[in-house]
């Protein structure tokens, strides 16, 4: 009897010991990474995935967010809305993620946001479509944009066209939310200055040739063609333009006018093309901290601005979990992300620094590596832009454009 009693008491003691904080299993916070490992976004997807890993490792090395370890489950969006939806459903229903980060293209974000809204889960993305700003798509304000809107891209295109001295621009747009948003943003800004767009063409995806659409634009004799395009279609259009022998210039978004375009077409065809892309927050301590870690991880720091955006998404999510707790609802987390991503608090540049300030009861404002963030009422940001020009097969940065 005494032996049985001793055994029971020992078992109770062991159970109590195992339940103590020192031996309790650490809480977790599930994060979904939905990045474009394949498809049009593939030049950026691997870097985005690595940047998320870097950020999560930093958060966990600092003791986690409010005691919770961040755990990442990943899916390839394939830069395609249908694949993104399938990946998001798996992350939401199987991995039970409380936030979805790393989404790249507008088509993906527009397809996925209804799912995250229904699940009351945050969606952090790098998409430009204007529809992602407010109702009805982002009526719950669970979506956060870390890239410039297509409208802001269009304004940057207009500033660059003006600076370069062009007077007769035309536009060519891929028929989706992003492509149309870019060229419509340009046209709006250009016409607001009392100027004319001489031709505008919208073309369909997955065509073997765009010769007829191109000829329609060239008949207007533009001195520059502004595109809302992706790499595959841009490659075809530029090849057919070069074969036509017509002399005109091009302003193309950076995700289409990149090193892969030069590789596909060669220096002669791409000479003089202006590539426009947002630039990271290069003067900020957060960028310097990120760039060092990203460089060691093999990320093309200057050539992949989206990786810095993905890094910021994970860091500010960690800070929001630290502030609201790992069991907070999506709505509660969204309020903290917005608060931490706007001015008014003590400026912080790393998760560890922000965690320390939050534990001391201070309000913090995270200054990102990709931009200063400073979310507006739609949870959008306004980063700076840069104009690169392709010269002798190399992308050469020429100047910064601030809106």
Q: How does this structure look, described?
A:
The chain has 403 residues and is of the alpha/beta class. It has 14 helices and 14 strands. It has helices at residues 2-19, 42-61, 81-93, 106-119, 150-163, 177-192, 211-218, 231-244, 259-265, 267-270, 285-296, 305-324, 330-340, 351-359, and strands at residues 28-35, 69-76, 99-103, 122-125, 143-145, 169-174, 199-203, 224-228, 249-253, 274-278, 346-348, 364-366, 385-391, 394-401. The strands form 3 sheets. A 7-stranded mixed beta sheet has the order 7-6-8-9-10-13-14. Strands 2-1-3-4-5 form a 5-stranded parallel beta sheet, sandwiched between helices. Strands 11-12 form a two-stranded parallel sheet. The radius of gyration is 24 Å and the shape is elongated. It starts with a helix and ends with a strand. This is ABC transporter substrate-binding protein. Residues 1-24 form the signal peptide. Residues 29-348 form the Leucine-binding protein domain.
